[in-house]
Amino acid sequence: MNNTRKHSAFLVLGIFLLGACMRTPVTSIPSIVGEIAASFHVATTSLGILTTIPLICFGLVAVVVPMIGQKLGNELTIAIALLILFAGSWLRVLNYASLMIGTLLVGIGITFLNVLLPAIITENLPDKIGSMTSLYNVSLALFSAIGAYAITPVAQSSSWQFSVMLLSMLVLATLVLWLPNLRFNQRGTSESTNTGINMWKNKTAWLILVYFGLSSFVFYTTVAWLPSIAISAGLSHNQSSLIAGLFQLFSMPGAFLAPLWATKMSNRTPLILGAGIFTILGYLGLMMPFHNFGWFVFVSLILAIGTSATFALIMTLFSLKTKTPVNTGKLSGMAQSLGYLLAAFGPMLVGNLKAASGSWFAGELTTMLVAVVFTIFGVLSERKPYVD
Length: 388
Known about the structure:
This protein is mainly alpha-helical. Helices cover 78% and strands 0% of the residues. The chain has 17 helices and no strands. The protein is globular and about 55 Å long. One of its GO terms (cellular component) is plasma membrane. Keywords: Membrane, Transmembrane, Transmembrane helix, Transport.
């Protein structure tokens, strides 16, 4: 690892706030998707695309992010991404067309945060990879929980448009507090840009890509449809919103502990297996014929531990599996490119299975089987300690 270089006193706060912006603008929307659908006179199930569009952006844009970050400097690139994210989030409230355009911009902005944050940590704080990854993953889970739960009562007391505007202000505040980091922005030299290995020809990198992609398939499917599954089971809209918030809140222990444990383990197979098994058990729980609020709280706890630990672990692996910030960015970009394209099929596939069968069972079974497969790929990725 490179030695720690000079950075702004606002860097750690910036990392925390970037975590808050990495999911909240997307994961809060399913809780108010019914209100949005009613406002624009479209079917609720058709708005699964509001989760799918960002995932497609993550996939298509991620591969070019490391190159742009090297050319402009990671700190400046993050600032531009936050500006795009703010504009996109605000646009979503105007009309149906701007909802789609804004969602596209939200996806592009978040893509840059997803890819560059591990590289920024590796570059600036190489001796604190575990703690810094835990920090932004906890922030990610905390703000996602607040957003997923609070957005429904805010929308009911005012409008869904006002609640989305509040999400936009979170992004704007993050941008303002990130600006001091621009003083330490460093553009990559042509030599540093051309260094590193070709991840597309690396077998371990491909295993990590599939592990990341299929686990994201499961996570975003859960985020998109868990409130709707709860409503179909007989829970009220407020209860389903609370379930969505609890799912994000319960993610905090896994998000915090997985990176810390991963940095202390020479082989992370037990951690991969544990997180995968929790996810599988969570979907088994959803398929059980129990339709009360308490059961959904329990199932959301199991799912949250499994999915959050898996995501946090993979984000840590981008740094732990590489020896230079350049390779960290390349592995992160490569895995998130095709990985998120795999993930994009999740909400769309499960929504279509529900529409075709009239039941969530087929979608739940499919998602559980995907969890089994991603666990296998995660275990296989641990056969070698580094990609480079």
